[in-house]
Amino acid sequence: xxxxxxxxxxxxxxxxxxxxxxxxxxxxxxxxxxxxxxxxxxxxxxxxxxxxxxxxxxxxxxxxxxxxxxxxxxxxxxxxxxxxxxxxxxxxxxxxxxxxxxxxxxxxxxxxxxxxxxxxxxxxxxxxxxxxxxxxxxxxxxxxxxxxxxxxxxxxxxxxxxxxxxxxxxxxxxxxx
Length: 177
Fold this sequence. Notes:
Layout: H1 2-21, H2 26-55, E1 72-74, E2 78-85, E3 89-98, E4 106-111, E5 116-119, E6 130-138, E7 144-154, E8 160-170
Parallel strand pairs: 2-8
Antiparallel strand pairs: 1-3, 3-6, 4-7, 5-6, 7-8
């Protein structure tokens, strides 16, 4: 990752040099500007990839959205699944609406542990439209009261929203020996 960032930076510097050297002829200047724009895009992608990698690290904060932001409004952010027996799977769908003026882009949704798996729309949600996030909780090897949190990262301000799956898991009976 570090090497791709350095490569992108090198390309950006070379493009800037090409732009400054191409000022003698308009045609050459236009070609140099095109190259610089391409190099800048590559460098920006490398920086964005590095930032994405940094925010996926444990304990890392999500970066503030760089483009236009919008508003995501949930019908409900919490679901109580009641009481289940250990080993059962619980699934719930959370409905939300893009109440802002820009397309809503969900870039990530992550459960608080591997037993909580969200599925979210990968396509932008137009303003005024609804979307759905389905969360599945696997209670295998889980006991007692549960409060499973899902962190959703989107082009909203703040960039993270949270939904919760709560309930209680009855322990499985120990097999007779």
